[in-house]
């Protein structure tokens, strides 16, 4: 019979959770299954990789124009199964993007989606550097 995740390790996290533990109280970029890009501070997580993240912004990026706009969302509990990728944000690194008005970015995003389809944006995200 398979051994339960926590058996023999009372009060300790499972082995796979050590990576999450290293990122607590750090600013993360989190990419969700639906393609949304969230940036915020990881505060805690549980054994299911559910994440409690504070000061979240949803970042909308137009790669062709190298512009972005953020929508402030506050504090979120993100279900672990919805996370595709996460990584620490380096505050000293310049990403080459400039901030633009939200209305302009959302309009351009809608135009791009109408021309290419809803799933091409996620494919572009995977093939381009953020």
Keywords, separated by commas or semicolons:
single chain; 130 residues; alpha+beta; cytoplasm; U6 snRNA-associated Sm-like protein LSm1; LSM_dom_sf
Write the layout of secondary structure elements.
Blueprint: H1 18-22, E1 27-32, E2 37-45, E3 51-62, E4 67-78, E5 83-88, E6 98-99, H2 102-116, H3 120-127
General description of the model:
The chain is of the alpha+beta class and 130 residues long. The chain contains three helices and six strands. The protein has helices at 18-22, 102-116, 120-127; strands at 27-32, 37-45, 51-62, 67-78, 83-88, 98-99. Belongs to the snRNP Sm proteins family. This is U6 snRNA-associated Sm-like protein LSm1. It comes from Durusdinium trenchii. It is found in: Cytoplasm; Cytoplasm, P-body.
What is the mean predicted local confidence, pLDDT? 82
Q: Indicate the structural class.
A: alpha+beta
The biggest beta sheet reads: 6 strands, mixed
Count of alpha and pi helical runs: 3
Subcellular location: Cytoplasm; Cytoplasm, P-body
Keywords: Cytoplasm, mRNA processing, Ribonucleoprotein, RNA-binding
Pfam families: LSM
Function: Probably involved with other LSm subunits in the general process of degradation of mRNAs.
